[in-house]
Amino acid sequence: MAYTYAGHTHQKIKPLIVIETTILCIVSYIALYLSSLQYPFNNFSAVQVHLSNILIFVLITQFSLLSVGLYELRLRESIRGVSRRILVSVGIAFFLHEGVLLNLVPDLKVNAIFIAIAGALSVLSLTGFRMLIMNNEWFGFSKKDVLIIGAGERASIIEKRMRRKADRRGINLVGFIPLDGDKCKGIKNETVVDINIHEDIEKFVIENDIHEIVIACDERRDALPLQALFNFKIRGIEITDILDFIERETGQVAVNLIYPSWVIYSNGFRTTNHLRESVDYLFNAFMGLFVVMLTWPIMIFTAIWIYLEDGRKTGASVFYKQERVGLDGRVFKIIKFRSMRPDAEKGGAQFAQKNDNRTTKIGAFIRKYRIDELPQIFNVLKGEMGFVGPRPERPQFVTDFIKQIPYYNQRHNVKPGLTGWAQLKYPYGSTSDDTIEKLKFDLYYIKHRSILFDLLILLRTVEVILFGKGR
């Protein structure tokens, strides 16, 4: 059965076009008034000409807004992206009106500054209005309606990972459609849509104006309505795999859902090259030298404090060296300020805890503000670490994690770092479950890493340090 997909969209777009046309008329009249202060009207015919110019400016601007996609409900742009589109569309209108139309029709005179004022006011007013509707979720622009195909084990990951309102910023989960191949009844608190997926899904998608369909079924063979999905795809409805959906919305890769073909065909996980490695090292070396020059008084004061607290009594070094696993599984010795008692690991290697009773008085302070990490800058200068990357773990733990956790060894495809995406996104934890959760963020970083992403993480880390939000 064939269906049309345009009805609901048009119903939402019509009032938006009317409102923005009204805004353009108002700002054009304001521009006409302001321009007339310098170039007053001399007769009635001049008024008619200027009113004609208002009408022409509004119509050309509206067509320009339409041409750059600003009346497409599936447009998923930030306010910055929307403002750029508005600026381009008003620029197009200015060029067509001032540069083309007035040259083709010389009798159509206009005040010298009318179009310039109208254009500037249009950009400001339309951008302000779009900010208002996006922040208040009007006209369906800020949220997309999402339908999940599947209601079993894989689909339940969405419910678990996206419980809070903040986790669903920009999306509205319409419901989950159960399939015969689902391994369990995984959805507990969300809407379950009980329809015949092969016969009724097209009607449901149209009636609910669905923007995106997420494939989250446990068994795909003979379970999916392929013809309907094909129809949705060619009509502009997004079809997304659950792994890509979780990655996009949560900033992590769901390692428990990964299958090899997804890794093979997905974007990201770009291989390094000599140029990238050289740029990375130069960037990290420059940052390292800068931080050393900035923090050397703090490091000297910290070393003296550690020595006075227990170093002179026990003879222990103010520094702590420990083997960690780095790039390609190579072992190196990490350098930190000692924050624990010298006998902290007399019972063997163990994870540090959040409120570890093995820490010294100064140790608790320097761990909270990450001062104990400062000597690792020398690991950075040696090329063993970067400023940003997965935190390096001890060989004893890595051996167990590789056996227990799928894809754990992939985090060694990049240099370890002083700070990382996982440290920003996940609270302090020391269990194997915590390690799995951190790995999800580490894999996301490895897949999407870039200098801009590194800079974002470094900027966010400053907040963590300044406010003592150690992770």
Q: What's the order of the H and E elements?
A: HHHHEHEHEHEHHHEEHHEHEHHH
Given as residue ranges, the uncertain stretches (5+ residues, pLDDT < 50) are: 1-10
Mean pLDDT comes to 82
Number of domains: 3
Q: What spatial order of strands do you see in the largest sheet?
A: 2-1-3-4
Number of strands: 8
Largest sheet: 4 strands, parallel
Helix content: 40-55%
What is the distance, rounded to the nearest whole angstrom, between the alpha carbons of the first and last residues?
A: 55 Å
User: How large, in whole angstroms, is the Cα Rg?
Assistant: 30 Å
The structure class reads: alpha/beta
Number of helices: 16
Shape: flat
Percent strand: 5-15%
What is the topological layout?
Blueprint: H1 7-38, H2 44-67, H3 79-104, H4 114-135, E1 144-149, H5 156-161, E2 171-177, H6 197-207, E3 212-215, H7 226-234, E4 238-241, H8 242-250, H9 260-265, H10 274-314, E5 319-325, E6 331-337, H11 361-368, H12 377-381, E7 386-388, H13 395-404, E8 417-419, H14 421-425, H15 432-448, H16 451-466
Parallel strand pairs: 1-2, 1-3, 3-4, 7-8
Antiparallel strand pairs: 5-6
Helix pairs in contact: 1-2, 1-4, 2-3, 3-4, 10-11
Subcellular location: Membrane
Main location: membrane
Protein name: Sugar transferase
Protein model, in words:
- It is built from 16 helices and eight strands.
- 52% of the residues lie in helices and 9% in strands.
- The strands form three sheets. The protein has a four-stranded parallel β-sheet. It has a two-stranded antiparallel ribbon with strand order 5-6.
- The chain is α/β, with parallel strands linked by helices and 471 residues long.
- It folds into three domains: 7-135, no CATH class; 144-250, Rossmann fold (3-Layer(aba) Sandwich), CATH 3.40.50; 274-466, no CATH class.
- Mean pLDDT is 82; it is low at 1-10.
- It starts with 6 loop residues before the first helix and ends in a 5-residue tail after the last helix.
- Its main location: membrane.
- InterPro entries: Bact_transf, EPS_sugar_tfrase, Sugar_tfrase_EpsB_2.
- GO terms for molecular function: phosphotransferase activity, for other substituted phosphate groups.
